[in-house]
Write a structure and sequence with these properties.
The complex is a heterodimer of chains A (310) and B (278). Chain A folds into 2 domains: 166 residues, 3-Layer(aba) Sandwich (Rossmann fold); 128 residues, Rossmann fold (3-Layer(aba) Sandwich). In chain A, helix 11 links the parallel strand 13 and strand 14. In chain A, the strands form 3 sheets. Chain A has a 7-stranded mixed β-sheet, with helices on both faces. A 5-stranded mixed β-sheet of chain A has the order 9-11-10-13-14, sandwiched between helices. In chain A, helix 1 packs parallel to helix 8. Chain A has 310 residues and is of the alpha/beta class. Helices cover 43% and strands 21% of the residues of chain A. With 278 residues, chain B is α/β, with parallel strands linked by helices. Chain B has a single domain, classed as 3-Layer(aba) Sandwich (Rossmann fold), CATH 3.40.50.970. Chain B contains 10 helices and 7 strands. Classes of the chains: A alpha/beta (310), B alpha/beta (278). Chains A and B meet through helix 4 and helix 6 of A and helix 5 and helix 6 of B. Chain B: This is Transketolase. Chain B: Belongs to the transketolase family.
Chain lengths: 310, 278
Amino acid sequence: MAKATREAYGETLKELGAQIPEIVVLDADLSASTKTAVFAKAFPDRFFDTGIAEGNMMSVAAGLAASGKIPFASTFAVFGAGRAYEQIRNSICYPNLNVKVAVTHAGLTVGEDGATHQMLEDIALMRALPNMTVVVPADAAETAQVIRWAASYQGPVYIRMGRAKVEDVISPDAEFVPGKSTTLADGSDVTIMACGIMTQQALQAAKMLAEEGISARVINMSSIKPIDEAAIVKAAKETGAIVTCEEHTVMGGLGSAVAEVVVRHCPVPMAMVGTEDVFGQSGKASEVLKVYGLTPEHIALEAKKLVEAK
Amino acid sequence: MAHLTEERVLELKAIARKLRVDILEMITKAASGHTGGSLSIADLITLLYFEEMHIDPANPKMADRDRLVLSKGHAAPAMYAALAEKGYFDKEELNHLRQAGHMLQGHPDMKHTPGVDMTTGSLGQGISAACGMALASKMDHASWRVYAILGDGELEEGQVWEAAMYAAHYKLDHLTAFVDNNGLQIDGPVSEVMSPLPIGEKFKAFGWHVISVNGHDMSALHDAIEEAHSVSGQPTVIVMKTVKGKGVKETENQVGWHGKAPSPEQCVQFVKEVEEAE
């Protein structure tokens, strides 16, 4: 079944709201889109719209956290990690306050709204901040697991969600553990590491490769920071090549995070699938992904090139 | 409304003189820091820490304490002088302001300094954090209050007005903001760099209760805070007319003293002037 991660976000917030009275939800006039409206309807006295003022929202969240509340602050990725970057840095991460920055509409699959709304550099920005944990769930089930974990964890967390529906890839019975990846398919010739909507693409790519006799391991790397160093080292040693895939620029995101581990501990050839040094554009989500090569076909091609070059 | 007695005013003035001496000496030792804006809020800081706020230096994280957010974080020396005088930490720490390996950072850091309720320094963010705190107090039907101190130059940050809108919208009557209207910012007079004037009218238009007061008059400041406590359903801003560098003739109303430290020789002379003042 396909479902958008943001749908799971709203539902899980509502579920947690009943269990944890300290949870407070903030939004910047996008609650119908981010799905925080689901929480707002159930707990109107614990939902505070800040209006279209994201910088204020992040610092207000910091003040709430400093007073013992557990704020979830939501907007689109570009307005959270982008417009309010410095508030996240100085009001939230530097004092290490317990704020959950939960953003939706990340990446190209925003679609028709185009480049101004297609955030492609937020993983890089958030990953560079001390004290910040960065998570990109692969599907609705994992989103619920991540939100439940985030509510119980003390400290800032950036949770990156999307607009479009994604196929189920993670077991609904799984539990999210920061710094732990999930191996979704085993393989010996190459490893494909992905996060967010690209995990489902990676699984499709592995099927394509199997038809050509290439055995690909597929790992869901939803926890970008901390990252599962052990799984990366193991994959490098056992498969000798790694392809990363992300709905994000290849500068500073998942690919970079994996490469940092690979070059330090076990250098092997890598390829990075993501957007290059460009902005997005308007179009249907599926069409825009094709324009920028964020497809199973492209992942399979990159993997094949690495295997052939061994 | 209970006014301050004349005797109490004299006591508070004596404390303010002490804080001014500490401000001058710590900035001189650091050879770095914001002299002008620290001296201009020394009287307010004295009144808040030694008269108004419900706090306990032995229990800096006390749940029902009043909070103070120094949104103009560069005036940290004034806050540090008060915290040390109250006993939140050893006065010896003041000798190590802005020095590597010590706790007194250039701007307030809640994780390293006991008594600091919010990390500030990037202008405009403190007032928003104070809104979050006041909202938490209101949600819990608690009695603790939140005070925020802003600079007049700081009002040029758009986020201040996002917060101003927010505080009025959510009727944050637990929040009292002060504007240190000393009229000067780094590049010159605020009226010439980028005028935030008129200040009171702007806050009034945003839905705040506005009080104007001489920021160096303890009795008037005290009465203004009492008035703020009596207001319900809206936040209050107390616009304080102040003198940048207040207390030392050479630094008063001098834009050059915004971020300058006195030399050791100047410090001796300045401290003498403060100590001999009324």
